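Posting here for the record, re: 2-deoxy-2-fluoro-alpha-D-galactopyranose.
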Amino acid sequence: MTAVDQGVWAAPGRINLIGEHTDYNDGFVLPFALPQRTVVTAERLDRPEWSVTSTLTGETVTFDLSEPVTGWAAYVAAVVWVLREAGHDVPGARLSIDSDVPGGAGLSSSAALECAVLSALADLGGLDIPVEQRPSLAQRAENAYVGVPCGIMDQSASTLCREGHALFLDCRSLATEQIPLDLAGQGLAILVIDSRAPHQLVDGEYAARRAACERAAELLGVPALRDAVLDDLSRLDDELLIRRSRHVITENARVLDTIALLREGRLREIGPLMTASHASMRDDFEITVPEVDEAVETALAAGAYGARMTGGGFGGCVLALVEAEKAATVAEAVTAAFAARGFHPPATFLALPSPGAHRLS
Ligand code: GAF
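Prediction output follows.
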């Protein structure tokens, strides 16, 4: 690949249609990329130094990796680190970062940053990194450098998604299939309700869920919960592990059922699967909070075909499948319900399946 001196790269946030907490269980996910994205304007430097400016705060962080980098710039340093670890000759660079992916909303602002920086550095260095290898590199950057034990869904979505499609990803084989998602063509919309309840992956709950799943797989004698079926649960005597495992097993099945319906163009019928996914996250995986439960219940009562929380949990966003013409009414109903319960007002927008990471100029 020919190195470029400068350019502008973008990588999107994502929303997950269905398949939550299945990625690190070797299971199935079905995210799509959002129009909201992180944009990196970058130029190559002739020394091994990285200078990163956030256009949101005006803050600049400069590092050469001789000392650990913390805070938001750690996500950038992590990408430099992982590329070097993989044997690439990463060029020094001046990077300016802008983003309209809301942070802390469960929409993968971290993956968008990692994937945009990875794209920029790969092109600035003329590095030969096939696109299908990039999600694993970005995930490793986050796991090993930042210290967040995330799975591979978000980095895959931010890198591999295509406009007008959802990405069916088998998180074991990493096989992908682009599933057409023509919402507008069927008069439908996906309404996103940002509950504005705080969402933090690093607070230990995510790691605890992951550890419980790994423990259950170990007790069942399978490589991952992807390999377990509901009948296996009678072999577990820990009630908590039974519920955690049941979520993963049933959620994987719901992803496959959703894909079967989408392939037949039966978009409205995925609604009940989305709602069942939410119930499973609420009752078995215990990762919802009152704000997201309220958003789901109110959206359903206002006519949504289905609704569920997306992302790691403990706050963040709900997506609701609605008739396009009803989206505003559903959003208003949720806003009113939040006010009645004394919650912060939610933010709402429509999600359009958008392209993955690419060079803008
Ligand atoms: C977060 C993680 F980063 C993903 O890997 C995934 O596990 C998700 O939570 C839950 O499905 O976004």
